Amino acid sequence: MTLIEVKNVSKQFGGLAALTDVSFVLNKGEILGLIGPNGAGKTTMFNIVNGFYPPTKGDVFLKGQRVSHLKPHTLCKLGVARTFQVVRPLQRMTTLDNVITSAFIRTKSKSHAEEIAIEILKFTGLYDDRMVISKGLPLGKRKRLEIARALATHPEILLLDESFAGLNPTEINDQIQIVKKIRTEKEITILIIEHHMKVIMSISDRIVVLNYGQKIAEGTPAEIGHNPIVIEAYLGEEHSA
Ligand SMILES: Nc1ncnc2c1ncn2[C@@H]1O[C@H](COP(=O)(O)OP(=O)(O)O)[C@@H](O)[C@H]1O
Ligand SMILES: [Mg+2]
Q1: CATH architecture of the domain formed by 30-43+71-240
Q2: Atom of ligand 1 nearest to the CA of 37
Q3: 101-117 residues labelled b (16+ CB within 10 A) or e (exposed)
Q4: Residues facing 172 on adjacent strands
Q5: How far apart are CA 63 and CA 66, in angstroms?
Q6: pTM here?
Q7: Residue 170 — φ and ψ, nearest 5°?
Q8: Which of 109, 10, 5 is nearest to 53 (CA)?
Q9: Domain layout of the chain by residue ranges
Q10: Ligand 1 atom closest to Cα of 40?
């Protein structure tokens, strides 16, 4: 079953074509990786799928319904939640209050919101940090708090934007386990942007590759790993870096 269909989406920022005629689908239950060199348009695609920007051309469909004109808050109520590449929990709140704040999208009751938050904090391994002010958490836990906040909205689809960036190997392993658990235990469908090739290769069922705003490949991790066009795009990035 197709949950999200991105159809011929283009996004123009002034003279810059951030995305050009990109199409792909996200199927229920899968983990779909979105990769590509810096500036390829990955975050812009998330911003369009979660309603932060309207596409310049093309459309996004959620279960067959056109949602390209909807705002993030509405999409969140419809079950689409995201994290941000730059972590931005409410810095002065405790971990618990941060997650409670997100849970309010599903309930008006303070005690129900707290119940949801506590379940999510246990699920993400942040329960022991519940009274810590968020800005005092190490990066690995702040990234996890981002995920916890998204989970507290009870999404059907979760968009993860570089949730592994800047983490050490132990934190990366913990994070991989959490992402896998989100799919298996919560049955949430995941669209994930990730720079670590090893992570994306081990975690994804399928991968879509963007380069300069265009889709250059789509396939299983094995297919993508052997695709000469993809290898070329990444070599190009290494040469220019
Ligand atoms: N709000 C914006 N205004 C102008 N240009 C933008 C904006 N957001 C992204 N861009 C540009 O669009 C291109 C794609 O950016 P982005 O989607 O963030 O890439 P990625 O996430 O793949 O690194 C880049 O050239 C970036 O500078
Ligand atoms: Mg990005």
Answers
A1: 3-Layer(aba) Sandwich (3.40)
A2: 22
A3: bbbbeeeeeeeebbebb
A4: none
A5: 8
A6: 0.94
A7: -65, -45
A8: 10
A9: 30-43+71-240
A10: 22
Q: Is the CB of 44 under 6 A from ligand 1?
A: yes
16 lines ligand 1 (CB under 6 A): yes
Q: Using one digit for the tens of pLDDT, what is the confidence trace for 19-63?
A: 999 999 999 999 999 999 999 999 999 999 999 999 999 999 999
Nearest CA residue ID for atom 25, ligand 1 = 39
Sort strands 80-82 and 157-161 into parallel, antiparallel or unpaired.
parallel
| C-alpha span between 190 and 232 (Å, rounded) | 27
**Using a 6 Å cutoff on CB, does residue 41 contact ligand 1?**
yes
| CA nearest to 204, candidates 27, 9, 58 | 27
pLDDT of residue 92: 84
Whole-number Å distance, alpha carbon 131 to ligand 2 midpoint, is 31
Q: Which long-range contacts (CB under 8 A, 24 or more apart) does 105-108 make?
A: 105/73, 105/76, 105/77, 105/153, 106/152, 106/153, 106/154
Q: What are the structure tokens assigned to 7, written together?
A: 């159809």
